[in-house]
Amino acid sequence: MTKTIYIVGLGLIGSSLALGIRKAHPEYRIVGYNRGEQSRTIALKRGIVDEGTDDISHFAAEADMIFLCVPIQQTIRFLEELSTLPLKEGVIVTDAGSTKEAIVEAAETYLSAKNLQFIGGHPMAGSHKTGANAADVHLFENAYYILTPSRLTQTSTVSRLKEVLSGLQARFVEMDAAEHDRVTSQISHFPHILASSLMNQAGTYRQDHPFTQHFAAGGFRDMTRIAESDPGMWTSILLTNQSNIIERLEEFGKRLKVIQHQIEAGDADAIWQFFNQGREIRKEMEIHKRAGIDSFYDLFINIPDQEDTILTVLELLRGISVVNIRINEENRADIHGVLQITFKNKEDLERAEGIIRTQTSYQVFVD
Ligand code: NAD
């Protein structure tokens, strides 16, 4: 019998999940709820879903699996609403929310009386884009997809869910909802607060120091990229992970005080240790691995800011498969920029390094 998958919320995450499910299971019937007409129409036109509705109850009783892909607080409201609707026996309900404890608690509160299975989910990939227009079948490739079991999870729940989501090519990890919220408060929620604080600080500072506007590049840009994220989503995240985030903020405040005192005291050794420790920890963590992919092989080339330099380099490397290219610009035109070229394997990297060293005068170094 054909399975019916119900995607509730046809935004970036819901529509991308639908595309991934369809890729591995073209025979499934995928139906979607979306409050606004725009994403619903796009999802129908692009064949992301077979049928659409603006009333969550419409397909609820027909679904074998329900994915709640709306903002966290709305996910909680829908869990309550699902408890009042007729549902199929044994239906699996899951969600995509960026925080997990509040959602798992709500599911246990509202759905315990129902004959269904619930497991929390957090596909850890996204972008600052929203809506069905931004749907991308590759969004979750190699990304971690966290599953947080609840009292309503059975042993078969996880395997059935993974099977339905096999087309995503994500990396599934099971963990406790509370631990998920602690870890993400450190590596995701708190950094978003920092990025927006930096932008807000620079915004005020530029009023008296207009060059702030022009010199903000390089490191500042890298550190504040995520300040472009959706304010509604981030408000929801902060309000459903309050205690962990406040604890991280307080701990960070103490760290800032320590480095402030070291600067005031002119303590060069302590300041050096501060930077060195950060550098060492960054090297140890998986930060250099894109989406946790095991190994990447990077070549860095110091290139002058001249016309055609990049084309010349790429021409020399013709025939070698390149995974990614990035230009680490400086904000002064008269000094070198760094061209970072990423290769799939060590052999390609070594071949490329040899070519650039022998056929150009550019300085080359390897990560
Ligand atoms: P989105 O803005 O692209 O889509 C949100 C969807 O929710 C839309 O379909 C919108 O119509 C619907 N919606 C919003 N408010 C609603 C309301 N009050 N009632 C009914 N429907 C409503 O956002 P998204 O990025 O797809 O986020 C969806 C969920 O996925 C959120 O819970 C978010 O925390 C989580 N998530 C997002 C990302 C990311 O980077 N974007 C990553 C992982 C998880």
From TrEMBL:
<keyword id="KW-0560">Oxidoreductase</keyword>
<dbReference type="InterPro" id="IPR008927">
    <property type="entry name" value="6-PGluconate_DH-like_C_sf"/>
</dbReference>
<dbReference type="GO" id="GO:0004665">
    <property type="term" value="F:prephenate dehydrogenase (NADP+) activity"/>
</dbReference>
<dbReference type="GO" id="GO:0070403">
    <property type="term" value="F:NAD+ binding"/>
</dbReference>
<dbReference type="InterPro" id="IPR046825">
    <property type="entry name" value="PDH_C"/>
</dbReference>
<keyword id="KW-0827">Tyrosine biosynthesis</keyword>
<dbReference type="InterPro" id="IPR036291">
    <property type="entry name" value="NAD(P)-bd_dom_sf"/>
</dbReference>
<comment type="similarity">
    <text>Belongs to the prephenate/arogenate dehydrogenase family.</text>
</comment>
<dbReference type="InterPro" id="IPR003099">
    <property type="entry name" value="Prephen_DH"/>
</dbReference>
<keyword id="KW-0028">Amino-acid biosynthesis</keyword>
<dbReference type="GO" id="GO:0006571">
    <property type="term" value="P:tyrosine biosynthetic process"/>
</dbReference>
<keyword id="KW-0057">Aromatic amino acid biosynthesis</keyword>
<comment type="pathway">
    <text>Amino-acid biosynthesis; L-tyrosine biosynthesis; (4-hydroxyphenyl)pyruvate from prephenate (NAD(+) route): step 1/1.</text>
</comment>
<protein>
    <recommendedName>
        <fullName>Prephenate dehydrogenase</fullName>
        <ecNumber>1.3.1.12</ecNumber>
    </recommendedName>
</protein>
<dbReference type="GO" id="GO:0008977">
    <property type="term" value="F:prephenate dehydrogenase (NAD+) activity"/>
</dbReference>
<dbReference type="Pfam" id="PF02153">
    <property type="entry name" value="PDH_N"/>
</dbReference>
<keyword id="KW-0520">NAD</keyword>
<feature type="domain" description="Prephenate/arogenate dehydrogenase">
    <location>
        <begin position="3"/>
        <end position="293"/>
    </location>
</feature>
<dbReference type="InterPro" id="IPR050812">
    <property type="entry name" value="Preph/Arog_dehydrog"/>
</dbReference>
<dbReference type="Pfam" id="PF20463">
    <property type="entry name" value="PDH_C"/>
</dbReference>
<dbReference type="InterPro" id="IPR046826">
    <property type="entry name" value="PDH_N"/>
</dbReference>
